[in-house]
Amino acid sequence: MEAIQPKVAEPVSETSLVHAAKAGDIGAFEELVKRYDRNVFRIAQHITQNREDAEDVVQDAFLKAYQNLANFQEQSKFYTWLVRIAVNEALMRLRRRRPERMVSLDEDIKTEEDSMPREVADWAPNPEQLYSQGELKEILGKTIQGLPPSFRTVFVLRDVEGLSTEETADALDLSIPAVKSRLLRARLQLRERLNKYFKNRSGGDGKP
Amino acid sequence: MTCSDFLKELTDYLDDSMDAQTRAELEDHLQWCHNCYVICNTTKMTIEIYRDSQLYELPDDLRSRLRSAILSKCECHKSQNGEAVKPSEAPLPKQTR
User: Fold this and answer.
1) Which of A78, A181, B30, B59 minimizes the number of CB atoms within 10 Å of its CB?
2) Confidence of residue A206 (pLDDT cuts 50, 70, 90)
3) Cβ atoms within 10 A of the Cβ of A127, count?
4) Mean pLDDT of A28-43
5) Domain check: are A122 and A189 in the same one?
6) Model-level pTM?
7) How many domains does chain A have?
8) Beta carbons of B85 and A24 less than 8 Å apart
9) Residue A167 CB burial class (10 angstroms; 0-12, 13-18, ≥19)
């Protein structure tokens, strides 16, 4: 059976599954894993930029969630709580790999100017069609990798995973203005970096 | 409204989380400012491309391997801790800000 993603109508509510899992029903917890494993993997891979680390994050985040279910007070959605655990695990691994660099969600990088648009060029009408699926994924992966971890984490939660601003703030323990500020800068920086691949080149073959 | 004012509001504009009057002012600015129009449009495309990209999809074989590993660790924890899940002493991230 295909796993159910968070945005789709759910036959069994998340709350019922959490209650059953808390009572010891491991099948209910398995259903929670099926619902969210893809999301957790995507978030982990975006933050760590490393496949092995992302695999470890998925395992450790779900195990930690299971071990701590009784402590989960249900003041937020289970998914938001799980994302918070996964983000912390992912950042921990990133710090281990890059001990020379301070990795924190609190970092507020440079000034507003790093996000000010420098190049204003319109893009081709369907820019993603200029490249094969494989090329496109490489471009997008490489581009997002260049963002500071705190920016790409906010971008992934809000724009890829579809969490609300409030849920993102809750999952990352940031204020709402901090989420909005990082999101704006992440979006503008990605746009700027994608310019060279997607801008309209009339008369050319569309590729740089 | 200046271009800098427009940029500050861009995220709320794209997320449609603003009052009608501010929205009208931004749309008025977009009517005559080509640069802001292009930035707004290409930023929107950036979000859509990432959202639809299926970047970092979890392959089925890895997915089932991970799930088995998770469940066997959970089973192990359960057998060590009795039937119901007991509160763990491991520190957890806070649930509320």
Assistant:
1) B59
2) very low
3) 19
4) 96
5) yes
6) 0.84
7) 2
8) yes
9) buried
pLDDT tens per residue across span A90-142: 999 998 887 666 556 555 555 455 567 777 788 988 888 899 999 999 999 99
Residues 6+ apart with CB under 8 A from A24: B78, B83, B84, B85
- Phi/psi class of residue A39: alpha, beta or left (left: φ > 0; alpha: ψ in -120 to 50)? alpha
Within an 8 Å CB–CB cutoff, is residue B20 touching chain A? Answer: no
Is the pLDDT reported for residue A10 higher than 90? Answer: no
Q: Per CATH, which fold does B1-75 belong to?
A: Arc Repressor Mutant, subunit A (1.10.10)
Question: Which of A62, A97, A132 finishes a domain?
Answer: A97
Whether B89 and chain A come into contact, CB under 8 Å, resolves to no
Could you give the percent of chain A with pLDDT greater than 90? 68
Quote the pLDDT of residue B93: 54
CB pair distance less than 8 Å for A72 and B58: no
What's the ipTM? 0.83
